Amino acid sequence: xxxxxxxxxxxxxxxxxxxxxxxxxxxxxxxxxxxxxxxxxxxxxxxxxxxxxxxxxxxxxxxxxxxxxxxxxxxxxxxxxxxxxxxxxxxxxxxxxxxxxxxxxxxxxxxxxxxxxxxxxxxxxxxxxxxxxxxxxxxxxxxxxxxxxxxxxxxxxxxxxxxxxxxxxxxxxxxxxxxxxxxxxxxxxxxxxxxxxxxxxxxxxxxxxxxxxxxxxxxxxxxxxxxxxxxxxxxxxxxxxxxxxxxxxxxxxxxxxxxxxxxxxxxxxxxxxxxxxx
Amino acid sequence: xxxxxxxxxxxxxxxxxxxxxxxxxxxxxxxxxxxxxxxxxxxxxxxxxxxxxxxxxxxxxxxxxxxxxxxxxxxxxxxxxxxxxxxxxxxxxxxxxxxxxxxxxxxxxxxxxxxxxxxxxxxxxxxxxxxxxxxxxxxxxxxxxxxxxxxxxxxxxxxxxxxxxxxxxxxxxxxxxxxxxxxxxxxxx
Lengths: 278, 189
Hints:
The complex is a heterodimer.
Chain A: H1 3-6, H2 12-21, H3 27-49, H4 64-91, H5 107-129, E1 141-142, E2 156-159, H6 168-172, H7 181-189, E3 214-217, E4 220-224, E5 238-240, E6 246-251, E7 257-263, E8 268-275
Chain B: H1 3-12, H2 14-37, H3 43-61, H4 72-94, H5 114-134, H6 138-146, H7 152-159, H8 163-183
Helix pairs in contact in B: 1-2, 2-3, 2-4, 3-4, 5-6, 5-8, 6-8, 7-8
């Protein structure tokens, strides 16, 4: 057994006896250790002082006007950020039409873009005017204007089964992606050169001997079923006044239509339509 | 000074109580620390450990919501041992050496080793008896060197002898101790 192992003593009594019989510390060493203890205790007390809570002091109350000012500043900051976001979005409009040519300013794409926009407009216009009907069930219904009208001489309607059209506004909404905001407002207010009346009049009876293209009844959308034909613009579009940010396109079916198309920063949109006699 | 006297003094005058407690148990705590740290620490490390142990003891005894009943020596022993084991681990990490499980004295000893522990304690009791029989100053020199881990130079200054004289005495004392141990039935030392 190694001597040092033999002197590794675990019994408390023996250790106590050794400490008593063979004291290792001189007086100098004893004092040095005690002064070290006091120094450490002093440092600990100092550290604790910084963590102690104080009592008997007046609690600080923030002035009310500062609170109000803080809230106002917060609201102003949020409004500023939101406003900036709106302005940034406005200044950089995003294209909504999934059509590469409509979103391109390349001269080679101008004619395809013109065809796409005018075709889309004429298609939507046919639906709005009731010249063509969206997908419907074929079940025919006659709506009477009042109780005195019993001859069933009015137009017949059929429930729309195309799920993309639930209310009449869904029909007019087809134009929103292809015309400018200003021209859309014009179409809603006056109808313009192409529509004789506001496009919003496609629902509800407003005039003598005129019938709406669509009727909402019991939460269901009904479309007028006409035997009339939609005008067909089979002739290819003709480009005119072609510029960097606008051009005119002519579509003809007897009386020609002149579409003014402008670049809104993100895509081409129809800004005006003029009908001219041939 | 008895435990009850120390307790009452600490209540009436904490500073005087702490000093009295320190004077009473300083040697004991130093012995516990040295016993644990002599293989890895310097005498300064042992002193540092003793001061940490006493700070722990003072704080434990001054807790207002806690009162240690019974043997004060038991409380002191426990805190001193724990502090010494912490110091041992820190020093072993600093020296980048592995800590053998046997080097860390565990507070709860395994029941299976009770017999072995008892034998070891008995051997150590005989050892201390043999050391005592060496007589002063040889017994002091042996204990200073093997138990407290002090060098011959440090021992020389504490016993008031030359270092060379301490070394010669230690050599003779070792031989004498070996023969005493062999007579007592302890061989292979």
